[in-house]
């Protein structure tokens, strides 16, 4: 059963989710540009980006010090800070908040590391339900190939801490397949708008805008 409640803020909360390499960040950037051209006030908020917590996470990741629970708790703290100091004030001010990942990332990814789902859900019961959540479905093998065309795969991103395989590509596919399964369950539970991340960028963006437009009409 869904565990979040709807909000009554004047703004709108739009979320993009998907495994790494699924194109979600590209789509939310395009959507942000579209909304700003139309004159809307927009806040784009990204996972693991708070000034207070993010530097700690990045330092621990670089040294490969994080256990599954440590990884989960630090990201929960980062989200809580951004939620309190960035997301809620923007919604209260009537802005459109575009969240590049939300609590669903933590639930899908941390459950893939073996943390009980109930424990994860309880950590985020304070979070409001987004007005619209896009889930970009992507085959992990294709996502890996996309990422490695522009940069190296990261240690935790590939799930190398799980010791599923010593080969980064194989580890990524195995780990992200678990994460993808978690997303699929959340999509059914929370009614995500599911899009094919392998489709051309322009085609996908047209669908995104078509689904967003009815949601923002009342803000004009």
UniProtKB/TrEMBL annotation:
Protein's GO biological process: dTDP biosynthetic process; dTTP biosynthetic process; dUDP biosynthetic process
Which Gene3D superfamilies does the entry link to? P-loop containing nucleotide triphosphate hydrolases
Q: What positions does the domain Thymidylate kinase-like occupy?
A: 16-206
Please indicate if the UniProt record lists Ribosomal protein as a keyword. Answer: no
InterPro entries tied to this protein? P-loop_NTPase (IPR027417), Thymidylate_kin-like_dom (IPR039430), Thymidylate_kinase (IPR018094)
Which Gene Ontology cellular component terms are annotated?
cytoplasm
An annotated Gene Ontology molecular function: ATP binding
Protein role: Phosphorylation of dTMP to form dTDP in both de novo and salvage pathways of dTTP synthesis.
User: What is the name of the protein in this document?
Assistant: Thymidylate kinase
Q: What is the lineage of its organism?
A: Bacteria, Pseudomonadati, Nitrospirota, Nitrospiria, Nitrospirales
Q: Please name the gene that encodes this protein.
A: tmk
